[in-house]
Write the structure tokens for this entry.
Amino acid sequence: MSLTRLLLARPVEGTVGERQRVTHLVYVPEARNRALLARACCGQAFGPGDLELLDGVAGMPCEACLRHAPINNAEGVLTDGDLIVSRLTGLEAQVELLAELVDRVGKRLSQATITFPGEQSNVEG
């Protein structure tokens, strides 16, 4: 089984609105079709000059591409991109929890009086 090759690309600036300039997973076109259309995992087709190739994800990823992307695992078996989306969803929940905890700590620190060695506390006790 051959491995599926994908490129990271997004629409060229000025061709779509900034919100639509998401990073797509684009199948590497076959040699005979390189001058025609490139197709993203989400199903969107792009013509010559429509995309800029990226070295990594820039901006928001196309969620539909993530859901539909084939994954080449160690055995060369293609699995569904839903696995990536479920992992990203789990990470998002963990990040939200961490942000809440950092916010709580920040609030407590802003309410605390900290006295460094050699300083006098302004709090009467």
